[in-house]
Amino acid sequence: MKLTVLGCWGAYPEAGEATSGYLLQTGRHKVLLDCGSGVLANLWKHVSHEQIDAVFISHFHHDHTADLGCLLYASKFAFAFKKRTKPLPVYASNQPGRFKELTFGEYSNGIEIKPDAVLNLDGLKISFAPTVHDAYNLAMKFEYAGKVLVYTGDLGPASDLSRFEGGADLLITESSLYAHETGLFQGHLTSVEAASLAKQLGAKALLLSHFPHIGETANLAAEASRCYAGKIYLAKTNLTVEF
Ligand SMILES: [Zn+2]
Ligand SMILES: [Zn+2]
């Protein structure tokens, strides 16, 4: 599996940057995880949108969906230029007032995720777990050829991700808060809480992302390393991790 960071800021992007978005590639798949503000401009640096097999949306906050409408327009153009012949599948939970946005004519197809579903997309197995957040959020586990990626989306420390225990090769989770800010914003993790989650899941590596707009983000990794012994990556646009 190859994971590329397309955006790593929480809530809104910094200058020239993007909010949540990640490109997951296997030998057979190119899957977009979340599509926040600025994500598409970074996606083009790695793959064409016509190559995307599926999109997974963790939840309907704007920092995870802001570029989705433009992606669906791109899908329409791909049809017009005969570069895509099947609708782009966009997976998300069925949230009233938002889910219908995922289906755009014949160009994209919104597909509801039930939290207990186990999907199999041409050998890529995907399962889900709801988290504690102020919008309904689904964490996701991707398994392919013996490798495992867990992407949490947004979550507070009371979330139960025990169904994902057992040694992910990479955990992408949020670190919206510094260690001393415990509980400042409900429904988000501090660096130390992110590290505790990595430890609980037995993750071999931790990618911290969804950053705050104050302080030195390098401190998030330093704080996490005090309670997690695995490899820690600090998200950065275009960072690619292969496992
Ligand atoms: Zn967010
Ligand atoms: Zn959120």
Automatic annotation (TrEMBL):
Top-level taxon in the UniProt lineage: Bacteria
A matching Pfam family: Lactamase_B_2
GO function terms (MF aspect): 3'-tRNA processing endoribonuclease activity
Sequence ranges assigned to domain Metallo-beta-lactamase in this UniProt record: 18-210
InterPro entries membership: Metallo-B-lactamas (IPR001279), RibonucZ/Hydroxyglut_hydro (IPR036866)
Keywords, alphabetical: Hydrolase
Family annotation (CDD domains): RNaseZ_short-form-like_MBL-fold (cd07716)
Name this protein carries in UniProt: MBL fold metallo-hydrolase
Organism: Dehalobacter restrictus
